[in-house]
Specification:
mainly alpha, DUF885 domain-containing protein, about 575 residues, DUF885, 2 domains, 3-stranded mixed sheet
């Protein structure tokens, strides 16, 4: 095996980072699909222990090549930023791998099993050749799930179990993928749009994928679940710190973050009380939310709510362009989509392909509903679409003149990305887009949700004490059961959403705290930039520079934003 990733020896961090992306897309077809490259590749990701080891070995070789670069290669600030990001990200990734966390990587969101299906939502489906690739990839679902099963089995053998809540939830999700006993599976529904000329092959391939999913679901239920029944859902400090470093790009002071989140909780609850009174005089926040659910504006029908969300994003683009952002080309192209059944409860965004032939997309899980109150959706879609994730990630992908492909795509840091999206919601409040009391209560509800995440994510996994000034169980120590009760007392989210969130935090430790901690970094960076520039501060110019600068972890983000 060659000492460097490509035969052309990289001489700068940017060249090395780009060669890493090229090598990883060749190794992992899921990564390739997310970037919209290698469209003829019908493989599924290798989720076996060997597949995870191959990606780790690639990361080690890249780090060795990075360390071997001459000092002059890092003299330019753009190259130094790329090098710092590449090293920090790969070091964090290898820390997770070397601890064996992939052997227990089963959760209700963003775990390897979800890659097996999500890859189809990223594929091209315009031509017969595209659909022939879909058929091939469907036939490879069995191999991917068998490899993943081998990884999880090795985890069982090593005593590395996923928590029981994750196992139970994923079993239920896979049941949704399989569909009703007499009806089509998700895979069968997906290929129904394929061409008649390939009908027999597509249906047969979908049936193979369905059978493989059923086999994996049954193995989880009959073998994995009993073996993991006694495992803890709690990460503990060591695993939590490792995962939090990967998600946030920083070794966090968890005591400080926990205490700060309680301060935010008290501030936000006071604001919610005031806004709730505008919705329904004398009401508590939960009573006001219940009133909005019953009597507020709602959209009837799945396709109707998709169109409504599309119009909301289109309207935001028109209103913000030229005033607070410069929106052109692919920044103006974002599609509202309905998430496939069996997804987690939270809405999400998928980035455009590298050539922008596939636009950015927002996804709404319907959870079987046909009625959609809009009081909360407005703020959420500013988060997922414009000026949130879509504007951030699409603008970053338009910055090839000064960013490596790695910085534009795979090098993202969750706290940076989610912090911007939560900042985007805050910005829309500052700009006066929540004059409707219901919409503003929805914004505050979203802020409270992300604050609760910090409190109970850190609290559960580290079994922290609830402070004396808490209105909820002061002096007790957090458990998942207390977290569920606290969530219900201070969030107006539906019960199925709250339950999905608790399972998410337990299965993805340290990720959910990045929204509020990232927003704090973005706000502090803006405040410091304003202080430095004084009356000459240009918010629109600052926004566009910030969106184009590439990703940073929380170790560096505030300082970088302040320097713009």
């Amino acid at each position: 095996m060659a000492d460097t990733v490509t035969s052309d020896v990289p001489r700068t961090p940017r060249q090395l980072a780009d060669s890493y992306v090229e090598a990883l897309t060749a190794l992992n077809p899921g990564v390739a699909a997310s970037l919209g490259v290698n469209p003829e590749d019908d493989r599924q990701p290798d989720l076996s222990p060997a597949g995870f080891a191959a990606e780790a070995e690639l990361a080690r070789r890249v780090l060795a090549d990075l360390a071997a670069l001459p000092a002059e290669a890092l003299r330019e600030s753009a190259e130094a930023n790329c090098a710092r990001l590449l090293k920090e990200r790969l070091d964090a990734e290898l820390a997770v791998h070397d601890a064996g966390d992939h052997f227990r990587s089963l959760s209700n969101i963003a775990s390897p099993v979800h890659e097996v299906r999500a890859i189809f939502t990223l594929m091209r489906t315009e031509t017969e050749q595209d659909w022939a690739v879909v058929a091939g990839r469907l036939r490879n679902v069995e191999g991917a799930l068998r490899g993943y099963r081998a990884t999880l089995q090795q985890g069982l053998d090593r005593g590395l179990h996923s928590g029981p809540r994750q196992v139970e939830t994923v079993i239920g999700q896979l049941g949704d993928w399989l569909g009703p006993e007499q009806g089509p599976s998700w895979f069968g529904d997906f290929v129904a749009a394929g061409p008649d000329a390939l009908r027999a092959g597509l249906d047969a391939a979908a049936a193979e994928a369905t059978a493989a999913t059923a086999e994996f679901r049954d193995w989880l239920r009959t073998e994995y679940a009993p073996a993991a029944a006694g495992a803890s859902d709690i990460a503990g400090r060591e695993l939590y710190l490792r995962s939090a470093r990967y998600c946030n790009g920083a070794d966090l002071d968890l005591d400080e973050a926990y205490g700060w989140a309680w301060t935010e909780f008290h501030r936000l609850y006071a604001a919610q009380l005031a806004e709730a009174a505008r919705v329904l005089p004398g009401a508590t926040p939960l009573e006001a939310v219940a009133h909005l659910d019953r009597h507020g504006h709602a959209v009837e029908g799945v396709e109707e709510v998709r169109r409504w969300l599309q119009q909301l994003m289109d309207g935001a683009i028109e209103a913000l362009d030229g005033t607070h952002f410069d929106l052109e080309g692919p920044l103006r192209q974002v599609e509202a989509m309905i998430a496939p059944s069996g997804s987690a409860a939270a809405p999400y965004y998928t980035r455009p392909s590298l050539d922008f032939s596939r636009p950015g997309r927002t996804w709404l899980p319907t959870l079987g509903r046909e009625d959609f109150p809009t009081w909360e959706l407005v703020s959420i879609w500013y988060h997922e679409g414009v000026p949130g994730h879509h504007l951030h990630l699409a603008q970053r992908m338009r910055s090839a003149e000064h960013l490596s492909r790695y910085q534009m795509t795979l090098g993202g840091v969750s706290a940076d990305t989610e912090g911007w999206a939560l900042y985007a919601e805050r910005l829309m409040d500052e700009l006066g887009y929540f004059t409707d009391p219901g919409h503003r209560l929805g914004f505050l509800e979203g802020q409270m949700l992300r604050t609760i995440r910090v409190i109970i994510d850190i609290g559960m996994h580290l079994e922290m004490e609830i402070p004396a000034d808490s209105p909820f169980r002061p002096g007790e120590h957090w458990t998942p059961e207390l977290a569920t009760e606290f969530f219900a007392a201070y969030s107006g989210s539906p019960a199925e959403m709250r339950e999905s969130e608790i399972v998410r935090y337990l299965g993805w430790p340290g990720q959910a705290i990045g929204y509020k901690l990232g927003e704090r970094a973005w706000l502090r960076g803006r405040e410091e930039a304003q202080r430095r520039h004084g009356d000459g501060f240009d918010l629109k110019a600052w926004h566009m520079k910030a969106l184009s600068q590439g990703p940073f972890g929380l170790d560096d983000l505030t300082e970088q934003l302040a320097s713009l």
